[in-house]
From TrEMBL:
Gene3D superfamilies: Vaccinia Virus protein VP39. InterPro entries: Arsenite_MeTrfase-like (IPR026669), Methyltranfer_dom (IPR025714), SAM-dependent_MTases_sf (IPR029063). Keywords: Methyltransferase, S-adenosyl-L-methionine, Transferase. Its EC number is 2.1.1.137. This is Arsenite methyltransferase.
Amino acid sequence: MYDAVAKTNAVGESASADVDTGGCCPPASGAATCCGTNQDAAINAIISTRMGYTEDQIKAVPDGANMGLGCGAPLEVAKLQAGEVVVDLGSGGGFDCFLAAREVGESGMVIGVDMTPAMVSKARANAERGKYANVVFRLGEIEHLPIGNDEVDVIISNCVINLSPDKLQVFDECWRVLKPGGRVAFSDVVATIELPEEMRRDAFLIGACIGGASLITDLQSMLENAGFVDVSIEPKDDSRDFIREWAPGRSVEDYVVSAYITARKPEQTKCC
């Protein structure tokens, strides 16, 4: 399970409340989480600034698109080019999709995929309000993407893959839909040391993008097993400061950090 409503369900909150408030994990004393806090645009802007977004980026999207989600800014490492086709896994309100649309231009296309009907509807409304002709949103799971083979240049994602119980399947799907030479650029939470079993079973920590985090070495192996090359996983040690706020007093920052994850599908791909 992944995305906003999946996280909300993991901690026993209602899906409808998530879409209304723009948050997906119950915040601790109003603290920022990977899933946002509330519908206050000013607060969400502050959160996104901490994640690496610029003021220009935050102001460039339709109201309601920035929900204060994520653990980084994947476009920093995506290096998008005009005319590229981009997919965003777990696209939420469409924030990263709309930013990507600016970079790929009218000759490019951005596809947001989310498993939540209410979130897809929200993103589509945001796209209509912002008059984005090169952005579409599709209902689907990141383990089973509603996209054909070899159609995509770049796949981005922000703090979503950690929520999937089958990450190898996610990476296999990324491989399938990418064109030869295509690439992935994710921001996600990774484990720097093995999480205790009680943390992995904790519904709150799973929903807070912590309990499902994989070890860096395991993620690298999964990406390579899926066929990717040039795998790079760059932990951001300063992210421990905001991750600490996701579960105050539980020392989660000793186990996980946010990282940028990039990899490439070779031009000459495996035949079978």
